[in-house]
Structures are given as C-alpha cells and as structure tokens.
Amino acid sequence: MPVAKRYLKSKPVAKCTFKLPKDAAPSAQAVMIVGDFTDWLEKPIEMKKLKSGDFKAELDIEVGKEYQYRYLIDGETWENDWEADAYAQVPELGVENSVLQLTQ
Prior knowledge:
By secondary structure, this protein is mainly β. It has strands at residues 4-7, 13-20, 31-35, 45-46, 48-49, 55-62, 65-73, 77-79, 86-90, 95-102. The strands form 2 sheets. Strands 3, 4, 7, 8, 9 and 10 form a 6-stranded antiparallel beta sheet that branches. A 4-stranded antiparallel beta sheet has the order 1-2-6-5, with no helix packed on it. It starts with a strand and ends with a strand.
C-alpha cells in the first residue's frame, strides 16, 4: 500500500500513514522510519506493530517538498517502501531511497 496522504486545509501539512507489510519484514521485532523528515537517524520514528504483523506509523509532514526515506528493521536491515512515489539514487552509498512527494 502506498503512503496514504491526507492534506489538511488548516495547516500546510499532510497526515501521512506509512505501512510496512509483514512480507517485507516477516520476523521483525522493531521497525523505524527514518528520512529527511526525521533528520535520518537523529530522530527515527518507531512504527507500531499491528496484529497482522504489518508495521504502521502516522506522521504530520510539511507539504510542498519531496522527502527521501527508508525503513530500518531491527536496527540493522534497510528496506525501501515497495510502493513509494519514486526512488532516488544515493551514489555515495550505492543504494536507492524511497521518495515521498508532497507537492500537491
């Protein structure tokens, strides 16, 4: 499921619901979402584990920008969002990051 976005009329933010399916991390105990909106590892957001085994987090994120992000599983494995809006190359690390587009 792609990130669900609900744009607020009262403020320049969107309520974004991130969901990492159980299939992406079947034995995960903890998943953090990190990205431009968390200063990467400075302020990671812990996702809630659902009864289904999926992980979910809802964040208020400023609109008008694109953000790169990834999921950190059990503090050691990085995973992209399988249904991200786009992907961005990170040549110095040899990986791609997921991209969240909040440009309305």
